[in-house]
Specification:
Elements: E1 3-10, E2 15-17, E3 33-35, H1 43-53, H2 58-62, E4 67-75, E5 81-88, H3 94-103, E6 111-113, E7 118-119, E8 121-134
Antiparallel strand pairs: 1-8, 2-8, 3-6, 4-5, 4-8, 6-7
């Protein structure tokens, strides 16, 4: 008998769209960011937050849906996460779940320009929903 176990793979090193511009992203400002925005506690804490708060949607689990949901959001000058949107989704409730978790994140440490003033940046975070098969 086969069992499918939901596994959340959080692809970290989410891409901070501060100074580099991949083909699918547009920077907010053309300023050079001296310090990138950081989740409180760093990448390991972000991974822990996502793994503890993300729930595999029942519909996706029943249909054995897996894949990546790409969420973009702004990190304001005050560190507050705003305007989270799905850039690339997989449906079956995964998009909504990834948005829910991103929207409930605690405040980040904001990015800073070279003159030391905080600046708003756009962040792109891939959240992977994956089912592992165990025999």
């Amino acid at each position: 008998m086969k069992y499918f176990i939901p596994v959340f793979s959080i692809v970290l090193g989410g891409i901070c769209l501060c100074t580099t511009v991949p083909a699918f992203a547009v920077p907010i400002d053309s300023v050079v960011v001296r310090k990138k925005a950081v989740y409180p506690g760093g990448q390991k804490e972000l991974e822990q937050y996502l793994s503890l708060n993300l729930r595999y949607p029942t519909a996706a689990l029943e249909q054995q849906i897996s894949g990546e949901v790409w969420i973009s959001f702004l990190i304001g000058e005050d560190g507050i996460v705003r305007n989270a949107t799905v850039e690339k989704g997989i449906g079956w409730g995964c998009d909504e779940e990834a948005l829910r978790v991103v929207n409930s994140m605690p405040n980040w440490r904001p990015a800073y320009k070279s003159d030391g003033s905080p600046v708003q940046v756009k962040y792109l975070l891939p959240v992977v929903f994956e089912l592992k098969e165990y025999k």
